[in-house]
Amino acid sequence: MRFFTLLFPRRLLGLLIAVSAPAVASAQTILPDYQVSTSRVANPSPAGTMEMPVSALRFEPRVDVQDRNLAEAQADVAIRGGVFENTGVRIGAAALSDPQTGHYLVELPVAPQMLQAPRILTGWSNASGGFNAGVGTVAFGWRAIENRGVASLSGGEHRYNRQSIYHGVQRPLNAKYRLGADIEFARSESDGSVPFGDHHFERAGARLQLGGANSQTDFFAGYQAKFFGWPNLYTPFGFNETENLQTVLVMLNHHWRSADGSEISAALTYRRNKDDYEFNRAVPGASNPFEHTTWLRGASVSGRKNLPSLVLNYSADIATDKIESTSLIFGPYSGRTMAKATLIPEWQGDHGTIRVGASYDYSNRNSSDVSPLAGITWRWNEHWSSSAEYSETTQLPTYTALKSNAAAGLFRGNAALGRSTSRNWELGTKGDLGGWQLEAAIFHREDDRLVDWTYRAGVVARTANAVDTRTTGFEIIATRRTEQIDVVASYAWLRKHSDYGSALIDASFYALNFPTHRFTLAAVWRIGGGFELRSDNEYRVQAPNPLRTIGGRHALLSSVGLYYLPPLARTWEFSVLIDNLWNSDFQEVPAVVASRRQWAAGVTKRW
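The structure corresponding to this sequence follows.
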């Protein structure tokens, strides 16, 4: 296991004048429709590698995880028909992004045991709670540290093996405060479910926490190293490609809540991601060396102030990023500053809430923009509420799109790409019906100048092009939890029209890679005698795409696990897990070989 020493950069302290979107804790008070406190997947642990934050998204009803090899190896996180580059991440109050390319958005060296279940912010929620994220944001909260621990071993086919250990302790300092610390180490390796699909992953992280009755402060430092290979990982030319990633993440997060319900959250963030990509692992450097390092430094503050006649929701984020690269050298700049400030007054009545506000987005490299937000929530009774909303967001492109050579190479950029705009109209409702919790929404989104990667026959490359898309969708999620069974079922429908203007394209790798119909079903059945059966399932009908070379448009994907917790020794857990139960060959990313069925058996000890 690799060890690490991480120090907070001194320059980051100067960013406390901060800027953007609400923290996870405070954002809950201004998100009227979609809040979850428990996971909506049955098997958060994968069969072929170690568990990561992205593992909880594989079958999430409102997230489409398009993986290469494994979701934990490389995953594009798309929401509501969007693309991987217009999704964001929040941990606590801090906004995270990948300046190089959204492919590495979920490179988060944080143990899942340290995080709360993810919440998916879309529409109004994303506009008020996201940063440089056009369509959606995945938001995690920091868990309170407890006196507990867990150690796990797992092994399976393809010489797969995994080991992990987590331990947390907390002690009272005085009558008001407690001090906690937790630490985690994890690793996994495998030869992979297809030839040249091997991986070796390592992660280490530690956290200090100062907790009180109305506040929580977390300081976290983590490191993750990942090597993995896959045929056609990014290109459709039949080569065995590899990635070698090292990610450092340091965060300081504070949340405070007053007796009258007012809240404030703040965070400082440092992230460094190194990427060494090989187009042909047999001949390293055969095509231009692709070696990149990006740095992201950010600060955030957000809050909610209760006044006699209204509530003020406010937030601000600022982020600076930088890239050093052997190949991404053609754009006009290699560093920038981005900022966002949001103010949302909120009027509450006996039966509803009205919110009207705006966000201001700034960059020293692009034009600035003002984005309005408006919404109303109406409570019909104690069981049902409905909402109507309008929101706008803007986003700047990543360095791979801006700084790749526009005339040669495997990935061809476009230095003229600028700020994209997304406008979302939405009607939603939620409530209880016959023991079921229901959430439903219908929406229409207009994305202008969205960055997509396209293909043209006869050109041995993919090219960054701007596209105007119009997406209409409907989604419904039904949840029921009883003593014996938990069920989460969902259905989503999407329709999309896209206009690439004067750009000549024959196919799209991302903007036109979406399901027109998608069903998910997660179930946990507590059979009795200590046995549990957990199953995640997804059935999708994909939009036609000529780049998809095998597997067709229809796919049924399932993960099934059988768990045994001995009644006389409940701290032990034994499991058998199968991913891709039906051995589907569906290409989640067009032209990328699908990972095949894998099984693993494991044992876990908790204390």
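The chain has four helices and 30 strands.
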